[in-house]
Amino acid sequence: MYGTFKALASLLAVAVGVQAQESSVTRSFYGMAYSPDGALLPQCGADQASVTRDMGKLAQLTPRIRLYGADCNQTELVLEGIKQAGNVDLSVWLGIFIDGNDTVYERQLNAVTTAIQKYGTEHIAGITVGNEFLLLSYGDGGSATDPKGVAARTTLLNYIQKTNQTLKAMKLDKPIPLGTADAGSAVTKELCAGADYVMANVHPWFGHVPVEQSAGWTWQFFQDFDVNVCAQAPNKPVMYIAETGWPTASDNASITTNGPSKASVQGLQTFMDSFVCQANKNNTNYFFFEVCLSLSQQLLNTC
């Protein structure tokens, strides 16, 4: 799914734009997915001033954000940004991106632990090991229960366990929950049993449903394929929708429409008006995907 979204550059811009300290802005969102602009190897162009500005704006929209990885110093940039923005009320699920290469994992684990030693645990709500690692491992036509999927799950759970051992050795002032994020269809009872929390990506645009049905479809998919599955695990992990949103456009006109799912600003507005209010009322834990702080403030839902 990540690769598909990468092909839809405009689709990634699916949240709201705000002006700092706008009195009309409310904290309508349970959580938001966030990646500092430019925090990609090898360029690593993210800068502290921009991230600090983002933290100030995000704190007006939500009390929670989640990151995807730790490369390019983004963990420290975000925690320092929270501090510089006035120690704003933001809880962060840090990220450790994995691709099966131990060097990649170790590099990011080191970045995360270094940031924790520097900034403490006050704003840290969890550490998410992997983002769609299972889906990317078993690929199109595969599944989480085929040999590739099972092998990937073993690798992932080993990384989670190693992260847990590392944190215990640090003797922190509070336990930090450890989990993972993957496609909603990749969740299994065995995966749930090895994590404190599980985040599932649930994008209604890929569900081939009209936007008017997207909020209900998202909730039902999450219940059927993720919540009910993890309820069978003995540890009963906390469940989150890791990503959900609606595309506004596509760089490729041929895939602007996915069956009855049409990418449009109005579609985004409709999804926000329906899903966000419903999810907030029924206590669904979700991270809206993903914040683009330059879109029109008119999209903001204040339910």
Automatic annotation (TrEMBL):
Residues 1-20 form the signal peptide. Transmembrane segments: none annotated. SUPFAM superfamilies: (Trans)glycosidases. It is an enzyme of class 3 (hydrolase). It catalyses: Hydrolysis of (1->3)-beta-D-glucosidic linkages in (1->3)-beta-D-glucans. It is a single-pass type II membrane protein. Keywords: Carbohydrate metabolism, Cell membrane, Cell wall biogenesis/degradation, Glycoprotein, Hydrolase, Membrane, Polysaccharide degradation, Signal. Glucanases play a role in cell expansion during growth, in cell-cell fusion during mating, and in spore release during sporulation. This enzyme may be involved in beta-glucan degradation. Active on laminarin and lichenan. This is glucan endo-1,3-beta-D-glucosidase. It comes from Puccinia graminis f. sp. tritici.
